[in-house]
Amino acid sequence: MAPMKAGAATAPAELYDDDDVVASDDELQSMSDDQLEGLGDAFEGDDLGDDLVGGDDGDEDAGEDEDTGDEDARARLKEAARRQQPAGPGPKSAAAAAGGSKLSGLVSDTAFMLQAETSDAALLQIEADELLSETRVGYSKNSGVEAVLARLKDALMSMPEHQVPMSIAKGFVEALGGNPKDSLTVKPPAAVTLVGSYAARAVARPDTTVDVAVQLPTDFLAPKAHLNHRYHVQRAVYLLAVARHLRDVSYSLFGEQRIEALHGDPARPALVLQPPKAEGFSLRLLPVAAPSAFALPRLAPDRNGVRSHCKAAAAGGGKSPAAAAAGPMMADDQQQQQLLPTPHYNAGILEDMLLPVHAARLKAVLSASPRLLDGLLLLKVWARQHGLMATRPGREAAQAAGPGGASTSPAATGFGASAGGCLDGCVLAMLVLLLSERNKMAASMTVLQVFRAALQLLADGPAWTKGLVLARQEADGAMKNTPTPPPLQTFKAHFPVVFVDFTGWLNVASHMTRGSLAHAQLLARRTLDILNAPADPDEAFAAALLTTSSPAAAFDYHWRVTLPPGVAWPVVKAAAAGQQQQAEAGEDGGQEAAAAGAEAGVGGVVCRDRALWREQEAQIELIVRQALSDRAKVVRVLRRPLATGANVRDLARGLVPLAAAADPSPKPTDDNGDDDDEGPADDDATTDYAHQELQAAARSVWVGAVLDPLAASRLVDVGPAADDGPAAARFRRFWGEKAELRRWQDGKITETAVWEVAPHERHLIPDLILQHVVRRHLPPGSAVASAAGCLDWALACQAVPPGADLAASRAAEAAVDKLAKQLRGLDGLALKVVGVQPLSAVARGTAPLPPQPHPLAGGSAAAAADAAGGVSGGIPRCLDPLEVLVTLENSGRWPDDPTAFRKMKAALGLQLAGALASSYSHHVVASEESLDVLLDGFAFRLVLYSGRDEAMLTKAASTAAAVAAAAAATATVANGGVASGGPTLGSGLLSPEESPLLLSWHHGLVSLVGGANSAFAPAARLAGRWVAAHMMSNHIGPQAVELVTAAAFAGAGSPGAPPPGSRLTGASGGGRCCCSMCLYTVVLLYCREVLRIGISVGFLGVMETIPRMVLEALEVGVAEIGGVRGPAGLG
């Protein structure tokens, strides 16, 4: 049976052994004998899992009975845990409330450890065990993957010694500055070692990949092969030789062969095999160098490994007279000082060298502590679900998508391969090692406590700022007696994120950026908040580990930066400046600079310290983060994924291309899968692929940002003081013509950047900032597309100018205030007006299209002309009344009969209408239910309210219910025992609109949510527009739309996420764009759990179940709005 079934079968015994879930004595005593006997039968026998694995597969009935008993037992345990009372200082106990919610120290989790006996922790632990049973994979010695690995090792070690021309990877060799006319002597590998997650027994589904390190022969690499990409060239040629050999040995055994880039580095290809008999596992062959292949000091972060990577003002042929007189030694030293460090290049080589060392260390630590291993599995699941760890496509997806589309769409399946450049398995494993090393892990800790401890370390900003360092431990063999590694400050000077491994030489976080780390820390803090005090354990666990995040919902603002075709920015910009300076030094200097540029070729542009694509992404993230400054909490550039389904022959065309630039056309193959690559590709194909590589460098870069709601719409960016010369110069150099001096009221004079926009466009200020810095700092022809204003057209009427809705809302608010003053000032009334409260959606800012001032309702001609905007038909023919609740003073003389009460209120309404007409000459229309008043271009509907309204409404409802029950009983008898339908229209039963107090409460609640979240009002407007556009307004009222949107802000649409921001119309800032928030609301409507129980409009006291045709329309609508996606949606 599958491993998941077996793991599930042994889960109850595991729970009892760990004392994570213990039913109380009262609970056990309350059980009947039959229940106790059934509970004992469910757990009897410790060899239940062995029976499931090794028993008779044909005995299906017995297996079903065992599964049923096991599920019943788990259900009873879960229900018993729910009924337990919190014991000890848990998050909901009085001790926790008295002591505060902050816990000191990384694992000062005494309260949480004691809380393990509470119901919430027990439920979370049960769900974590269930998730782990589905995440683990089997590691049987007799499995198919083990047999394939044994055959693979035998095939590799039997590879004959032979000459291999480097032309088999012609394009790859030329791209890195090598000579394809050379040849290499290929021998069997020095060692074949299992590395990565499979070696440490830490594979987490669905990424079932087995990493196999193929160590290059001892004499295969020259002592200085680490310079100028020689190692990468020889590594790729050896990989192709291995691929040929395996295909000749047995194509049917090792299956299809693909090429993918290791960790997104196009210069480090890996061979991926898909053996048919490997039980779903993929084999990834990684050529590595021996740990002693290169001197470790030469690969330090401050050393140069690519000679073409030098300063722009490097000394060429024009040497200074002092240097020439000092002799050649000093001239060489001067040239050496001009070289720039290549920390990422050196880290990539070190990572290959230390792969077996890391695998041995991780296996030793994790095998001694199963809890650490389970915590690492949960960390991987969490990182993948939240877009912090790249997801490799499965075999079926890779085959279906082809070479260029192997990377899954971020909008459809989360971040997918675009999540690279953040966390990976190595970083997470080192986090667990660091916790174990610092004695922050105990054997008695549960899996969730290990998971929380790792998240706390990840969320520890000061620790990451200082730099994480594992204690140095020299491994046996080649890593013994190694030189002293460089200090921590050296790593911090060359990497934005530092996490040094236990050898002291490798920064395992060298691929991470400040933006990716900030995003990971934000999500770690958010997850900890969810797990610390879960309101609903099931919902908290789903939000932390089961909900897949997407780029469209993970960030507040989205931009797509597109570079012009064929540009090699930022490398060429620096090289051109250096060549210009050398040309000015003299004729010889200019010729030497030109020769150096020709020698670098494509390799000098595409790959220096790291690939050109990664340099562009890092520079764009740096520029955007500097431009947004404190407006943004997180600025992250999603990596452009490289092709994961590239053919082996593609290395003859060049480096591993971007997924979007890979050649989608299939390669002709024979029956054995041979690509007919006996010789190099022709020149035309190579030229065409080189053109594709240049086009790949100009692909769009997707940027996401989480903004501070209080600062996002700030109109002025304040810079340094005018008397701070260097800082002021940097500010002016960055902002250009936008920088200006401004004197403040306190007398200070500072550099500022002012953004002058209309009030209704303040939510677009971040977009304007990005457009300005892209024009200034990126190559000419660069463009930026944004998503913040993509739905602004839906909130404006075509017949009115932009911003008229905001002006109309403010005019309506002023008219309400004016009317309130007039009502309170009326004399001669039987009962005075003591309160005036607007009830309309216009006053809450949630009306999809606010009414414009009408000239026939008291509006001025100028206002009408502005509303019309010069367009025929701009003035509406009908006015929508704006409801206003008018509260009268209390009185004890109201009649007790509901009908008389309504008549008395109508008489007071007539008196109020006459007073308004006589005192202020307003046009008033009175009815029994309300008063309609025309004032300043708007129609206001006044609803009278007194302290007796609720009592009268309740009494009327009781009477109507009794009459309806009697009528129903009579109709049942008359129909021969068949009951008639429910209450009909006009039966007297109350509707929510008949209770002014409920409407007043609704207005206060929605206004409170809108005041705390500036995104709420435009999001509710968009949701209302969407409902109306799909002709569902008759089924979903405006109050229901507002409440569903408020539920989305409360976390129902995305549990655990903070209330998102949006467009800004006032002084506060915003965050998540309206498009994303509207998508949240519609997804909440479409949520199957919500549809199953119906949409509960509890605030209005109504339970409405949406009709089936509306649900089908919602399903279609979600698919439509789902088109507003992340990176792809901006196109």
From TrEMBL:
Pfam families, per database record: Nrap, Nrap_D2, Nrap_D3, Nrap_D4, Nrap_D5
GO (cellular component) term, any one: UTP-C complex
Listed Acidic residues bias regions: 15-28, 43-70, 671-685
Region of interest (Disordered), residue spans: 1-98, 580-599, 659-685
Low complexity: bias regions: 1-13, 86-98
Domain Nrap protein residues, every copy: 210-365, 374-547, 614-778, 805-962, 1014-1065
Subcellular location: Nucleus, Nucleolus
Family annotation (InterPro entries): NOL6/Upt22, Nrap_D1, Nrap_D2, Nrap_D3, Nrap_D4, Nrap_D5
One of the GO BP terms on file: tRNA export from nucleus
Domain of life: Eukaryota
Name recorded for this polypeptide: Nucleolar protein 6
Source organism: Pleodorina starrii
Gene: PLEST006138
